[in-house]
Amino acid sequence: MERSFAPEASVTLGLDRSSAAPLYRQLYRGLREGILAGTLPAGSRLPSVRVLMRELKVSRNTVEEALAQLSAEGYLEARVGSGTYVAVALPDDTLRAGRARGTARGRVSPGGDSPGGCEGLSRRGATLAGTPVSASGRRRATAPRPFRPAVPAVDEFPLKVWRGLAGEFWRRPPRGSLGYGEPAGYRPLRMAIAEHLRAYRAVRCSWEQVIVVSGSQQALDLCARLLLDEGDEAWIEDPCYLGARGALSANGARLVPVPVDGEGLDVASGERASPDARLACVTPSHQYPTGATMSLSRRLALLGWASRSGAWVLEDDYDGEFRYSGRPLSSLQGLDDEGRVIYVGTFSKVLSPALRMGYVVVPPGLVNAFEGARALADRHPPVPEQAILAEFVAEGHFARHLRRMRRLYAERQQALVDAAKGELAGLLEVRPSGAGLHLVGRLPDGADDAEVSVRLAAGGVEAPPLSAHRFSSSGTPGLVLGYAAFDETVIRDGVGRMAGTLQEAAS
Questions:
Q1: Which ranges of 172-215 would DSSP assign to H, the alpha helix?
Q2: Model pTM greater than 0.90?
Q3: How many helices and strands (H and E) does the chain possess?
Q4: CA 456, chain centre distance (Å)
Q5: pLDDT per residue as tens digits for the range 65-92
Q6: Smaller CB count within 10 Å for the chain: N or C?
């Protein structure tokens, strides 16, 4: 049976009731393929749920589940009082022209617009290639412009100390360090990480539970691959870190957006929306991007839900080291008595993104599985860099560097707040935060933060819109402002540029 579901786009959809694939999944795939092929144009309005139910002869739940999944993955957006529309900025934009020329199975023609110009992509390949990991898109390796978030002060990297440790390694490489390494990572580094986490993050682990990975993004991807089957539901914060959203959706998860407020993830809302979800992905120490800290009551509620439902909790502690009043907060993992929490950390935000070094702490029962998956991904991390980093941590250089960076970042945050107060009053509200490497600037109600972000970029200021991290078009408009990578002079200059652009946008 074929029915027209979008008259303005003249697209048809067939549902096969004899297929083993659930109807909601068939509807989801049909709509998604129409969007990717361009037969459902960006910005076009979909028929109402009631019309789709009548035309396709399916239940309301079937339609709503398919639309919710497409909205969660960024293909659709709901506009209050107006309806559901195909998103203007699609996660698969780079594939649309190529897919329009491909077959119904989604193959991409040689020399087309597919990533890398490859001969053909599977549906999974198309999803992977078109899934964004940053609100700024795929960036070239250029110097960051103010106020690019998630970038540390790489100009403060302890080069002298690192150079000395590297020289010592290459003068006398440890036995076996130039051959194949262990998939889970260099043992002395795993031991040093475990000791640091026990002392500073209250993580309860042995060194055997630490798996060294190529940054937190690989950790998120490994967790999604190992813990989720296609179609499994996964809670994700709304708004959220796009790297986590991409890792889960690219591995077939059905994303369940759970709202975030001043206490972090609203666990009660998550339970109402999806009590039997397989996994919850959270940033409890410093929620990305809002900066909220998950309260103790919410943490205990999340662990209670995970215990009752047998779900996993993925704790992304991307910048938990940076708290500017008192000691860093203890990890969620440290409260877990049942081994339901998987803890992810990274050296990208505390040392340098170029190191591509992170770690995941897994419950004892998952160690062998993660080691095997790590070996399949790329055999093992580079041993020399791991050995140098192990000495850097073990000799206390890492802890000293963190203390120095906390002082520096607190000063840079204050510089941003002061400059914004002086030049952006009435245009952008920037409040201080007790933690993290970025702040959220609030625009006046009704402002289009995506459009403002584009205007700022044209003027040399990189400030991703808060709406890019949400699953719907509703919510307070704002800009994500990273400050860690910029000295006070650059911060003041960047705020001055923002003031001129925001004044023009408001007039």
A1: 187-200
A2: no
A3: 16, 15
A4: 23
A5: 888 778 877 788 877 667 888 887 666 4
A6: C
